[in-house]
């Protein structure tokens, strides 16, 4: 306990000195103005979390798909007669657990999130109040004051997810903006990001220590700035292994050098940067 206290005191002292120096340097610096009224945009990880969906119509279908895409365990409470074709499909495929009746308070037991999409304002408000009592985050469709969070318009391409939110003010406008953003993206953006993720995972294996985090981050920034989308998509496992050999020296080869290494077993990293490898390049 004494050792922990000493470590915390030392960290606090270092942090205080750091923040004092930063404060002195930033006196003349302008900072972003606070814009109230927004939402905190997060990538909420709900894998294996229990999500309760009350309702089985079109809105519920969209909510269900979003949650299944995030690997949540979804339970749908709705009479079978109220299920639309898509929700019925999810039930038939056992992608969700279906409770064939109207909502009951006991349905909230164990729920991590509640999504309500029914055409009954009074019942929706009752469920909202029950969720507040139990401190369960909830979203009541089309009733912004009764939402702990909003659903935005989402563009998905593999690991890439982009959400546009109007904070409940204009969902249709959010969809229009999202489509415009999607059109501006490279068609292979998702594949490129997947490749970067694979490279990062490999890097963590050869440099696992937390102390190396700044260096890892800095090197990955260099790599991300060095190659374009198509070049990332074309990287093979061999290319990534060769690329990682440059991490120790905090260097990044050109794509031409990296591809040439496929045919040059036993290459020396130093040769790439002094011109001996056949190219004369810089970092």
Automatic annotation (TrEMBL):
Positions of transmembrane segments: none
Top-level EC class: oxidoreductase
Catalysis performed (reactions): precorrin-2 + NAD(+) = sirohydrochlorin + NADH + 2 H(+)
Entry EC number(s): 1.3.1.76
Keyword Oxidoreductase: yes
Siroheme biosynthesis protein Met8 C-terminal domain span: 186-253
Top-rank lineage group of the source organism: Eukaryota
Siroheme synthase central domain mapped to chain residues: 157-183
Pfam families in the record: NAD_binding_7, Sirohm_synth_C, Sirohm_synth_M
UniProtKB keywords: NAD, Oxidoreductase, Porphyrin biosynthesis
InterPro entries (alphabetical): Met8-like, Met8_C, NAD(P)-bd_dom_sf, Sirohaem_synthase_central, Sirohaem_synthase_N
Record-level Gene Ontology MF annotations: ferrochelatase activity; precorrin-2 dehydrogenase activity
Pathway it works in: Porphyrin-containing compound metabolism; siroheme biosynthesis; sirohydrochlorin from precorrin-2: step 1/1
A biological-process GO annotation: siroheme biosynthetic process
Entries under PANTHER family matching the protein: SIROHEME BIOSYNTHESIS PROTEIN MET8 (PTHR35330:SF1)
Name of the featured protein: precorrin-2 dehydrogenase
Species in which this protein is naturally found: Colletotrichum tofieldiae
């Amino acid at each position: 306990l004494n050792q922990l206290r000493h470590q915390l005191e030392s960290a606090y002292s270092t942090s205080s000195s750091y923040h004092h120096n930063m404060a002195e340097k930033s006196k003349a610096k302008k900072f972003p103005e606070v814009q109230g009224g927004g939402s905190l945009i997060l990538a909420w990880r709900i894998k294996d979390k229990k999500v309760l969906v009350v309702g089985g119509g079109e809105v519920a279908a969209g909510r269900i798909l979003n949650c299944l895409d995030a690997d949540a365990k979804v339970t749908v409470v709705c009479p079978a007669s109220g299920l639309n074709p898509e929700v019925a499909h999810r039930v038939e495929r056992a992608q969700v657990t279906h409770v064939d009746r109207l909502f009951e308070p006991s349905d909230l037991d164990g729920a991590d999130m509640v999504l309500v999409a029914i055409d009954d304002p009074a019942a929706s408000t009752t469920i909202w109040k029950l969720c507040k009592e139990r401190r369960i985050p909830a979203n009541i469709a089309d009733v912004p004051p009764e939402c702990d969070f909003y659903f935005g318009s989402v563009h998905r391409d593999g690991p890439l997810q982009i959400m546009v939110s109007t904070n409940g003010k204009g969902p249709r406008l959010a969809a229009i903006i999202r489509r415009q953003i999607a059109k501006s993206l490279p068609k292979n953006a998702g594949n490129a990001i997947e490749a970067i993720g694979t490279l990062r995972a490999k890097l963590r294996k050869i440099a696992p220590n937390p102390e190396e985090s700044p260096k890892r981050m800095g090197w990955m920034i260099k790599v991300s700035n060095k190659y374009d989308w198509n070049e990332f998509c074309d990287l093979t496992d061999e290319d990534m292994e060769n690329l990682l050999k440059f991490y120790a020296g905090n260097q990044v080869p050109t794509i031409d050098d990296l591809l040439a290494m496929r045919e040059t077993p036993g290459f020396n990293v130093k040769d790439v940067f002094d011109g001996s490898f056949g190219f004369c390049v810089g970092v």
